[in-house]
Amino acid sequence: MSSIEIRESLNAPITQMIEAVKVALEKTAPELSSDLLDRGIFLTGGGALIKGLDERIKMETGVPVYVAEDPLTAVARGTGKVLEDLDHYKKVLLRR
Q1: How many domains would you assign to the chain?
Q2: pLDDT tens, 21-77?
Q3: What is the rounded distance in angstroms from the CA atom of residue 96 to the CA atom of residue 43?
Q4: Which of 41, 43, 59, 65 has the fewest Cβ atoms nearer than 10 Å?
Q5: Residue 63: what are its φ and ψ, rounded to 5°?
Q6: Would you give the distance in Å from CA 71 to the centre of its chain?
Q7: Distance of CA 9 to CAs 2, 4, 5, Å?
Q8: How far is Cα 14 from Cα 12, in angstroms, rounded to an integer?
Q9: CATH code for the domain of 37
Q10: Beta partners for 42?
């Protein structure tokens, strides 16, 4: 497969993802929206490594976008940090 074919095959799901981000931003409370505009969106996981994805999301949403330092392990490392200090995070994680 060529890189053009790969880009074409990924276009539809990436477009859907960006549309979902836009909908979420529209539904977000103003005080939270301002935090997002100030701090931006961080991409994690293998998809974060798709060349140009961060720029496309930034262009289409108007929100700064950053790729995590080590996107392939960011979620696992973050989960580990929460588990190390679970009592601290229970207030946020276990809301009912």
Answers
A1: 1
A2: 999 888 988 888 888 888 999 999 999 999 899 999 999 999 999 999 999 999 999
A3: 28
A4: 59
A5: -110, 135
A6: 10
A7: 11, 9, 6
A8: 5
A9: 3.30.420.40
A10: 66
The Cα 4–Cα 40 span in angstroms is 29
Contacting residues for 28 by C-beta, under 8 A, at least 6 apart: 36
Nearest alpha carbon to residue 58 among 74, 34, 46, 42: 42
pTM recorded for the entire structure: 0.77
Q: What is d(CA 53, CA 14) in angstroms, rounded to the nearest whole number? A: 8
Query: Which CA distances in Å does 68 have to 3, 21, 41, 45, 88?
Result: 24, 18, 10, 9, 23
Identify the residue whose tokens are 């074919």: 5
